[in-house]
Amino acid sequence: MPEIEKLTQRVAFDLVQSGKAGKWGEKNNKLKLKVYPSGEASWVFRHAGRETVIGQFSSVDLAHAKQEAASIELKLRAGEDPITKRRLARTQIPDEHLTLRAGYNLFCKLELPLKSPRYQQDYIHEFEKYILPKFGNRPFFEITRDDVIAFIDPHRIKRPSIAKRLIAYLSRLYNWLSNRPGFSSHYNDRFINPARRVEKPIIKERSGYLLPEEMRRIWDACDLLPNPYSAACVRLLIITGKRTVEAREMRSTHLDFQSKVWTIPNPKSGDLEDKVPLTERAFEIISEINKNNGPYVFSSNGGFSPIYTDNKLKLRLQAASGVIGKHCGETGWTFHDFRRSIKSSLTNLGCPLFVSEAILGHKNKGLERVYNLADLLEQKRHWLLKWEEQIFT
Q: What is the model's pLDDT at position 189?
């Protein structure tokens, strides 16, 4: 920073006239003349690496600038922080706009649309179901680490995957707000991301799977479900091995009835990608239920929103079928275990690894992902029929 021996009104005028950009001032004096590249200039007060503008050179002379600098210095020595107060006054946001809910709404408007559709859906669901009811109306900078730990703790054992997502989503929001005007000023003198480094629960990988005869009993128990769309969706999961979210969000536009192929969109890009050959049994399930006017096939309100395949549906099927799962542990099977069941059974029958992986919709890795673009429709159809034979014969 350039220094001058004596700062006077005349010297300041000459510096501004010369157009030399920089901060000019006497050694050990916190009052500086800041000349901008545009030729404009302001009096500034610098302290501990921070600065605040006292006034424009054209409207405030040196004498008044010295008086204001002395006033700021006295307040600093008295323990006040007038520099931060001035900065907040310039970027002040009303308290009702500093709640966690306001920050979340801003994030959903500006940042969330840049994420994948699946991420958007999960983020909104977890925030609106769990986080906003608890913290939504509180100023975001008042939420403490203790608050977050107490909030997460009940989910650690019963819902570890949800607890893990809640920590990640909350931390992501705070990191994003730290770069937003108005919100960022609250990060200058203290660290306020209450979710940072909160320990995430360890999620034990499941290893449960169902035997073909157990799958058949669950298939038959679907007749006892009151909602025919739920019954049809579960049966499709049993014989295709697809993910629950893929099945329940099936749209009529994803189906080619002529070639009997269901194309599942990529959850990140939205492009149609995973091609699923439909056996006669799978095609029959869809054809009988696809009578909605809206886009969704498995829907109880005319196709305008998909059904839910939640834990209540699973428990109802467990009770109706009497199947907990010989290899599924004390808590019993989940819908995702259907995928492990079909993979295990087909492997025992001699299905090639690359075909069973394609049936599950797993992507190739490395150079295979770049060069191997085969859809394997006939191979997948062949082995899906083998899987049905295991269930129904």
A: 47
